[in-house]
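Collaborator request log, item 7. Partner lab (contact: R.S.) asked for a structural prediction of AcrR family transcriptional regulator to inform their binding assays.
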Amino acid sequence: MSHTGVRRDARENRAKLVSAARQAYSFDAGEPSLDEIAAQAGVGIATLHRHFPKREDLVTAVFQHIVDDELAPLVDDEPAGSTSLEALYAVFARILSIIASERGLLTTAGVFETVTDTIIGSFRPRLGTLLAQAQQDGLVRADLVEDDLVSLILMLISTIVGTPAGSDGWRRYLTLTLDAFSTPTPSPLPAVGASSRDLIRTSPLLGR
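Returned to partner:
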């Protein structure tokens, strides 16, 4: 087989493993074994380990695929006729909706920080742009900074981790959060404290 054929086969096997892992975790029946994922993909366990030496590598690859193929187009698509605050809400809702649908992956031990880095790192510039526009339009309190949005998304993601599969309870907290953004008489905010990464590491729920 030519080198080109080998590379094509490797890409196809990797894609099969990512698809099989996503499907296996979607059943919310506990953490699937790597042997089960390899069998579902139609490859041997050695092939799985060659592409993904650790389970965390496979889960991160699944989320990267979701971010690139599903979330990115949604986040960049601003609803027609929406205000900048509504556009900000839509981006939050789309990110959280996709994450909620992949709850089994999100709760895999040891991957929360990596996964949230993948998601937030991909959309942080977009969030910053929307925040600046909403502040310019006078729809969002002027003392919010980009790091606040990152920390708030992490807090909202934690409501997904802590609720039963299939629950959309996070929507309640998203609404409460964005109402706080746009309060007409905001209380002064204390100085920016711990970074988002510090919040994860010190949280008993998230710092696993």
